[in-house]
Amino acid sequence: MIKVVLISGSLRRGSVNSAALRAVRRIVGERREPTEVVSLPIGRIPFYDGDFEYARTTAAVRAARSLVAAADALVISTPSYNGAVPGVLKNALDWLSRPDGACALSGKAVAVLSASPGGRGAIDAQPALMDLLDACEAVVVEHPPVAIARAHERLDESGEMTEPDAVAELRSLVDATFEALRILGEQRASVAA
């Protein structure tokens, strides 16, 4: 079974990034491959503190690391806060990258997207997020940028992202993610052979 972890960089209840990830969940659920899709609630993770890391970690940090370590792929949706990823998302990635030599993100296929009520779709946050993932030795899924502009206008009455163009972009990103998993699987099989 393929396990996909969804991470929204926004904590807001009406987050358009969380709505985009709910659409991703529905799209993954339509695929033929047996899959499990879970969300990682990063708002429960405390601020990173190196002293605290070596003393002991919290249950939220242990659960996050375990969830990501067991995943085959991640899909991260980020808003842009002053042209960068939100601190809460950076904090979660910092915890997931620790301890040194045991990064839960290493070798994981990670798809990146962004959404915003603005006209640029928070695309300016994506390069920094990809740099962070690269530093964690994640495998960023190759795909044209998915930056959903005016995302609040793409939600239906119940707050779900159902607008056809947005869903088509998300579907294409999901397809690219599963293709990346196939390629990674083949590469790992050839190394093991």
From TrEMBL:
The keyword Transport does not apply. Gene3D superfamilies: 3.40.50.360. It holds the Pfam family FMN_red. Keywords: Oxidoreductase. Its EC number is 1.-.-.-. Residues 2-152 form the NADPH-dependent FMN reductase-like domain. The keyword Signal does not apply. InterPro entries: Flavoprotein-like_sf, FMN_Rdtase-like_dom, NAD(P)H-dep_reductase. SUPFAM superfamilies: Flavoproteins. One of its GO terms (molecular function) is oxidoreductase activity. PANTHER family: CHROMATE REDUCTASE (PTHR30543), NAD(P)H-DEPENDENT FMN REDUCTASE LOT6 (PTHR30543:SF21). This is NADPH-dependent FMN reductase. It comes from Streptomyces gamaensis.
